[in-house]
Amino acid sequence: MESSRMAQKSWAKTPLWKRAEMLHKAGAILKDHKKPIAECLVKEIAKPATDALTEVVRSGDFVSYCAEEGVRILGKGEFLVSDSFPGNDRTKYCLTSKVPLGVVLAIPPFNYPVNLAVSKIAPALIAGNSLVLKPPTQGAVAALHMVHCFHMAGFPKGLISCVTGKGSEIGDFLTMHPGINCISFTGGDTGISISKKAGMIPLQMELGGKDACIVLDDADLDLAASCIVKGGFSYSGQRCTAVKVVLVVESVADALVKQVNQKVEKLSVGAPEDDCDITPVVTEFSSNFIEGLVMDAKQKGATLCQEYRREGNLIWPLLLDNVRSDMRIAWEEPFGPVLPVIRINSVEEGIRHCNQSNFGLQGCVFTKDINRAIQISDAMEIGTVQINSAPARGPDHFPFQGLKDSGIGSQEIANLDRNIDDMHDKLAL
């Protein structure tokens, strides 16, 4: 912490163009080392080989993008005059500019330990901050490789530190340390705990999601099914932006479920080294949690479209039809290759279910009526709505943040204190 503080004081005085130059160099080095870093991702977190390479390359591109945008954004100030506010004469002037926060604590998740680390590192560095990275337990080696690329680019000693260890052992020490000036965290419920302990410092939290997919009766069902399978089962569903519940109008539910099942049957299951679609989930604890959700739904009458199959941490993809709101999987985030389908009688019912969730990260709507799609999007209390496409984190320069228990801090979103029952007439759904 002390070395980070000292390094930041000097780094803040480094010219903006020089910071950008070094970030460009780091981005290039990161892409040059994509193969060994990707191999770590395959071995540590069972990420399919192709996806692992893609993560490293997009991370290098993001570093360079931040260098370019940082120069544009931070190179500008704002000049205000007093008579622009009622009742004042032109007697005062105000010049505003952006200044570094200081030492930033960055905590990325296991599923994207490189990409979601650089999404914190690069903006912090271009803005003149130093950074302490606490990588996830699974994914720490890949993160160390990534940090080494920044060191090879010539960043000053102490500016970028990487502290490995279990969050249960070192998490409170880091997040409550008086030397930390900002915390950027991506993960689950732990983020809520951090926000309660951190004190009066800026927080940026990207937390969990129960991303809803609403399918209307006029939707292109083949497109919807393809996006549902891609969105729900990519990286075995271990993504905060994965489709986590399908809300489909009853009149097209049978046809949609049939098409989704046909595509699920084609997913390959096995080792990440073989670039399979479905690979083992990250821990035995996660596997047991996922199985608990499936068994609860089965006992309460859900239809298992495939036989439930598990070998260790490897869970075969499973679609659950006829899920009801009294089942845990209707509300809880499985973070695995299981996807519930809830049949709805109206669009309003689907919006109501979406908004009753504690989460509000992303969602999607499938319909050929763009006016209807926008109206539904406005009614969904979530950060981002994809129209006729699956939820996604990228492109990486797009704003990304949720509402409610899905996060705070990275973009301005109007408070959505709305009741869907009061909106029917206005929306004319």
Low-confidence stretches: 411-429
User: Do you know the CATH topology of the largest domain?
Assistant: Aldehyde Dehydrogenase, Chain A, domain 2
First CA to last CA: what distance?
A: 54 Å
Number of domains: 2
Strand coverage percent: 15-25%
Count of β-strands: 19
**SS field, number of helical segments:** 14
> Class of the largest domain, according to the CATH hierarchy?
Alpha Beta
Average pLDDT reading: 93
Radius of gyration: 23 Å
Broad structural category: alpha/beta
EC number: 1.2.1.9
Protein name: NADP-dependent glyceraldehyde-3-phosphate dehydrogenase
Keywords: Oxidoreductase
Family: Belongs to the aldehyde dehydrogenase family.
Description:
With 429 residues, the chain is α/β, with parallel strands linked by helices. It folds into 2 domains: 198 residues, Aldehyde Dehydrogenase, Chain A, domain 1 (3-Layer(aba) Sandwich); 216 residues, Aldehyde Dehydrogenase, Chain A, domain 2, CATH 3.40.309. It is 41% helix and 16% strand. It has 14 helices and 19 strands. The strands form 5 sheets. The chain has a 7-stranded mixed sheet with strand order 10-13-14-9-8-16-17, sandwiched between helices. Strands 5-4-3-6-7-19 form a 6-stranded mixed sheet, sandwiched between helices. A two-stranded antiparallel sheet has the order 1-2. Strand 6, helix 8 and strand 7 form a beta-alpha-beta unit. The longest helix is centred in the first third of the chain and has 26 residues. The protein is globular. The C terminus is likely disordered.
